[in-house]
Every structure is written in C-alpha cells, then in structure tokens.
Amino acid sequence: MKNDRILRALKREKTDTTPIWLMRQAGRSLPRYREKRADREMLAILRDPPAAAEITALPLEYFPVDAAVLYNDLVTPFFGAGINVRMEVGIGPVVDNPIEAPADIDRLTPFDPNLTLAWSMEQIKLLVQRIDVPVLGFIGAPFTLCSYLIRGSRTRHQEEIKRFIWQHPEAWHRLAEFWVEHLAAFGIAQFEAGAGAVQVFDSWAGSLGLEDYERYVLPHNEKLIRTMQDAGVPVINFYTGNPALLPLVSAAGGDCISVDWRLPIDAAWDLVGERAIQGNLDPTVLLAGRDVTLAKAKDILDRVEGRPGHIFNLGHGLLPGTDHNVIKALVDFVHEYEAEKAGA
Amino acid sequence: MKNDRILRALKREKTDTTPIWLMRQAGRSLPRYREKRADREMLAILRDPPAAAEITALPLEYFPVDAAVLYNDLVTPFFGAGINVRMEVGIGPVVDNPIEAPADIDRLTPFDPNLTLAWSMEQIKLLVQRIDVPVLGFIGAPFTLCSYLIRGSRTRHQEEIKRFIWQHPEAWHRLAEFWVEHLAAFGIAQFEAGAGAVQVFDSWAGSLGLEDYERYVLPHNEKLIRTMQDAGVPVINFYTGNPALLPLVSAAGGDCISVDWRLPIDAAWDLVGERAIQGNLDPTVLLAGRDVTLAKAKDILDRVEGRPGHIFNLGHGLLPGTDHNVIKALVDFVHEYEAEKAGA
Q1: pLDDT in tens, B119-157
Q2: 3-class DSSP state for residue B275?
Q3: Which of A88, B258, B294, B298 could bridge across to B278 with cysteines, CB 3.0–4.6 Å?
Q4: Which candidate from B166, B243, B282 shows the least CB-CB separation from A244?
Q5: Active site residue B73
Q6: Which residues pair with B279 in a beta bridge?
Q7: Contact partners, residue B128, CB within 8 Å, separation at least 6
Q8: Do A219 and A252 contact (CB within 8 A), yes or no?
Q9: Which residues lie closer than 8 Å to B44 by C-beta, 6 or more apart?
Q10: Which of A71, A148, A213, A216 is catalytic?
Q11: Please, are residues A329 and A294 in contact by the beta-carbon 8 Å criterion?
C-alpha cells in the first residue's frame, strides 16, 4: 500500500495532506458504475468478489480518494443468520421472514462470517493486491441493522424498531447481543482479510433521545467496538442526526467518530475529545455545484486548522444525481488546500 | 371559552393542571375522521368552513384536549400567491408551477389573506362560537413552506431548497421576505378571527447546520414572529430535528418553543430560557401502546415538576395507525398526574 494517510489520521499522526474519502463513493455518481453492474442485482454482485472489487475500486479511476470503501450492504449479515433479504426499488432491503415477536429471535442461526460471508473477505483480498489505498470494511450497528429486520423493512421514523425495543426490552437486548457477537466477528474477519479499518454504521440512531440511546444502544455499540479494537481493528464510529447524542456516541468508543453537518466540526471535535474525527460536509452541498462545495469545504478545513486526526468526508452518503466532476473538484481541493494556504 | 389553560400556560401563568394538545390530533387516528371527510379532497374541505370546522372539533368528542388546532395545511397560502397546489398520495403537496430560478419569484402575486384565504378565518369564526377550548391557528415558516415550492414538492433531504439557497442567496432572501410579509398577515388574520394563538411550523429546519440556520432562517423567522407578536398574537415556535439549533431557534422568538424528543425536556428548557415550552414526546411512543406511552409521559412530567409554562404535546405530528384509545389514556394521564402525585 502506497497511501496510508487514512490509517495515520486514525492514529492522529501528522499526514502530508488531509485525507479524504466519501461515503457511497462507489455508486450511481460514477458514469461507469451502471456498466460495471450490467443490470445485475446488487446482492448477486456482492457474491461475485471480482465483480464487486471492480466497483469498490472504480472511484479511484475518477478521483484520488485516500481509501476504497467495500461495495457491500449493511444487511448482508442477515444471510449468515439464515434470513433471506431482497432489494426492492424505492424501499430498500426487505426481509422475507421478519422478526415480529420475541420468540422470532430464536430463529436466528449462529454463523461464522468467514464461512457464510466468505465472499466479502475474498473481495477484500482481491482489492488489497490491486489498489494503493486502504480498503475500508464496514458493519451496521445493532439498532440500525435491526431497523431492517423487525417487521421486514425500515420505516421512515424507525417506528417498528422503537416499538419492539420499548415493548420488549429484554428481547431487544438478547437480539442486540446476538448481533454484537456476529458483527464483531465479521468486522474482525474483514480486518484479517486486509481491511485497514472498519466503519460501524449506526445511521438511524439519531432518531433516538438521550435516555433511549444510553439504555438500548450505547452498551451494545461499546461492546461491539471494544471487541474489534481488542483484536487490533481501527474502528470508525458513524452516526447522523442528533448532535446532542455526540458525547454518548463518543462514549461508545472508536478510534474516530464520524459526525454530520448539524454541528460545526470544531464544536463537534470538542465533544469527541481525544480521538480522530471524520465527516461534517452535508451531501446536499455537492448538488449545489463546485463553487458552493468548495466554499463549504474551505470552512471545514479552516475550522480544523490542520489538526492531526481529521479525515474529510460527508456527514452521510453521496446523494443520487451528484456530479462526479464536483466530487473530483472537492477531492483535489481538500488535498491541495493546506499547501496552498501555506504558500499564500 | 371555558378552558383557557393553554393561553395561561403561554403566559407562564399557573394552571389547575398541565394543558395538552397533540399535533395532527384531527386526523386519521379518529375513526369518524373518514366519515366526516366522506372521501372528499382535503383541499376542497378546507374551502368549506363548516366541514373543516367539524374535523377541527372532532378530537374533542374523543378526548378532552385543551385546544383545537385548525384543520388546514401549511401550503394553503400558495393559493393566495397564485400558485396551484395538489395533494398527491405518497408524496404530499405538489405545486403546478414551481420556483426553479430566481426570476420565478416575480410570478408570486401579493395577496390579502383576509380576501383570498377567507375560508380559514371563516372556519375559526365558526369554531369559536361552538367549542370551549382555544382554537390554534398555524402557518409555515419560510424555509419549510418553500421546501414545497422550489422544484414543486418536498424532497427527502430538503436538497432542492438547500441548493436554491446556496446557489441564489439574494433571491432566497427576497423569496423569504415575500413570505414573511404574507404569512405574518395570515397569522394576524387568524388571530383577529378568534384564534387564541398561532403556531409557526419550521418542520424541516432541523436539516440545517448552525451557520445556515443563522444566516438564512433566523432573521426571517425572527421578523415573522415579532410582527405577529407586535399585533398581540401569542406565538408558538415549532421545529424538530437538531437540538444544537435550539439556542438559535429560541433567539428567533415566540412565547413558547416547541421541541422534539432528541433532548430531555428539562435540558431543552434550560436552553429555551424564560419562555413557555411545548412538545417532547416522540410520536412513535404511542404506537408502542398505553403502558409505554404513560411511562414516557411520566418521565416528562417528572422532569418538568409542575413548572408553569409547560404545554404537553408530541415532538412532531401523530403517526398514522395511532390508536385513539392510547391518545385518550395519555390525555387523561397528563391531566390527572399532578393531582395524583400530590395525593400520593
């Protein structure tokens, strides 16, 4: 690997320039993405490591990002547990036999990710041989993952997962523990296959208030992250949506906390404490074009002032319709800003 | 009017018990709602004041809430400005000739709400004669209202309104000023027709970070609220989604700030300062049934400790599928809690 900026930033070591990658960088924003997918089902491609690896590496043909994030989906661990899942247009992942009552949890079958999800690790092994930047693996956190499992598909306000948790708190803890164990094993397997770090996505935890996060999410995320770190995995802890949760999210751990745009990055970093920080740019900014994007990026970089441990990213995934030329301009700007500022 | 608890709470005067009303209380949760609508288009009913007034008053037949909130829609002021709007299933309000570029703003026609939106005021006049609780009027704030106007329908991430604001900041301020003037006039007209207070809905402002809120939303909301207050209107300032905005939302003014569940109500009240407070219960809680709902309501009431100026409400509107028996249990619990606690 020639470019280890991201791995150094995760340790808060100084880097020659600010590292950047973008959530959902391997997707619809890239003209050749459709071609590579060739209209195959996403879930079929994931089980075809050479095809999936080509998509993971595709962004590097467009812009010099400092990491390649695995082309995968949060819900693929469901297959390991014996749950079938389909991608439905306009809905997202839909589970065939959802969990509706506590007894349904007993249907989940324990699994070894290295056996039942081997295609993910094979993809990583192919990529590590081929590309010059770290491969980032990822897993969902129990709350976010189970928002797709309970009642079969995610609801707009997370009302089904919340209802299950409040009505059956003991069963929820049992369900979360099942997933913590298997997700930690999956994260460690990705790391052992060559991933440079693993990001934990708790995309929907921001719909919770402080007490519910502390009681139903924090202990599980903390155990999940600690188990991976104990195995040597650098962990990025991602969430979005409720800045008031940031101290609790940070308490759950991770080498790096990934934050959204609802707080300025300097204020967020004060709450994150002595860790690396990632994120902050609103993905809708890129839809407003190059000039708006670079002005917002400049504001973030000026607030960070070159402090080691900053990984430039969005606060959530790239939106459909984002122009890859704007992404390219952003990546170049972030890489060149500190040097230009020093020279100016 | 026999029951003025809400109006007293807005002035932070002591009340005999905690007042409560619920956003979207006049809707699908009520079995007789469908019957009253008789499958007519919502927008047609609004222009039929006796029919609309029956729906506004309907919740009082089910549970003794302390206010009736006008059956109306945020987007009806569009009709005043010469913009046609339709309700589309699964999408919401869709505008026929949306604003896409700065020049489109000139198409908006100035209007007098007392003439072109007279049906709203007629509904209020009918209600005031008939019911024993205050009628609450409402308006949208410019950001939220225009998220339905720019590009024709609200997008999930508010990406179109944000893009417009960032690309055309001067035009945005002109557009917002048009709406501030006309929305303030509409709010005042509702008050003069008999509404006891007017709620300003900035439902989607929580998708913004602090700088954007301060630059593009705060000055307009502040002027809108102040103009109504100068005319004697008690104002409730509602938003949801980003607790970090709360100090700025409070700076925009209002007799009362309506907050969601992402901060505990006591922490939120500290940020709101010397004003009344409303809201806080997550509407998804009611989907989890009576026991969960009353436990969460108890927590809110225990945090408030009977401090004057608390109006019990949800943090956002009631969700489809909420059981009206659970709503009834909540309303009774809130009314009886302080007396039962004192007696215990």
Answers
A1: 999 999 999 999 999 999 999 999 999 999 998 888 889
A2: coil
A3: B258
A4: B243
A5: yes
A6: B259, B312
A7: B1, B135, B193, B194
A8: no
A9: none
A10: A148
A11: yes
**ipTM entry:** 0.94
Contact residues, chain B, for A300 at CB < 8 Å: none
Query: Which pLDDT belongs to residue A311?
Result: 98
Instruction: Say if CB B75 and CB B82 are below 8 A apart.
Output: no
Cα(B249)–Cα(B217) distance, integer angstroms: 9
Report how far Cα A88 is from the mean position of its chain's Cα atoms.
Answer: 21
* C-alpha distances out from residue B143 to B102, B216, B242, Å: 16, 8, 15
In terms of pTM, does the model score above 0.90?
A: yes
Q: Could you report the per-residue pLDDT of B79-120, keeping only the tens digit for each?
A: 999 999 999 988 899 999 999 999 999 999 999 999 999 999
The two structure tokens encoding residue A159: 């009302």
Residues of B in contact with A287 (CB under 8 A): 159, 162-163
Structure tokens that stand for A155 in this block: 């609801």
How far apart, in Å, are the Cα atoms of B267 and each of A217, B204, B305, B315?
21, 22, 13, 15
Nearest chain A residue to B157 by CA: give it. Answer: A284
Query: How high is the pLDDT of residue B89?
Result: 86
Nearest CA in chain B to A321: B159
Secondary structure tally for chain B: helices H, strands E: 17, 9
What residues pair up with A202 in beta bridges, in sequence order?
Answer: A239
What angle, 0 to 180 degrees and rounded to 10, lies between the N-to-C axes of helices A290-304 and A324-343? 40
What are the backbone dihedrals phi and psi of residue A153, each rounded to the nearest 5 degrees, phi first?
Answer: -160, 155
Residue A34: count other Cβ atoms within 10 Å of its Cβ.
10
Closest CA to A207 of A253, A168, A165: A165
Distances (CA, A) of A114 to A73, A77, A111, A127, A229: 17, 11, 9, 17, 18
Which residues from chain A sit within 8 angstroms of residue B167, using beta carbons?
288-289, 292
Q: Which of B217, B213, B187 is nearest to B200 (CA)?
A: B187
Instruction: Identify whether B24 is a catalytic site residue.
Output: yes
Architecture of the domain defined by A5-343: Alpha-Beta Barrel (3.20)
Which of 189-228 (B) contact A at CB < 8 A? 206, 208-211
Residue B281 φ then ψ, to 5° = -80, 130
Of B211, B262, B285, nearest to A244 by CB-CB distance is B262
The single-letter DSSP state of residue B262 is: T
What residue segments make up the domains of chain A, in order of their start? Answer: 5-343
Q: Record the tokens describing residue A190, joined without a space.
A: 């990705």
Residue B251's φ and ψ, nearest 5 degrees, are -65, -25
Q: Which one-letter amino acid corresponds to residue B138?
A: F
Q: Is A171 on the interface with B (CB under 8 A)?
A: no
Q: How confident is the model at residue A153 (pLDDT cuts 50, 70, 90)?
A: confident
If 0-12 CB within 10 Å is exposed, 13-18 middle and 19+ buried, where does residue A204 land?
buried
> Any residues with CB less than 8 A from the CB of B343 and at least 6 apart, and which?
none
Tokens, residue A265: 């990055």
Tell me the per-residue pLDDT of B204-229, one tens digit each, with 9 for 90 and over.
999 999 999 999 999 999 999 999 99
Give the list of residues 6+ apart from residue B143 with CB closer than 8 angstroms, or none: B161, B176, B202, B204, B205, B208, B216, B217, B220
Which residues in chain A are closer than 8 Å to B244, comparing Cβ atoms? 243-244, 262-263, 267
Contact B195, B126 (CB under 8 A): no
Q: What pLDDT does A325 receive?
A: 97
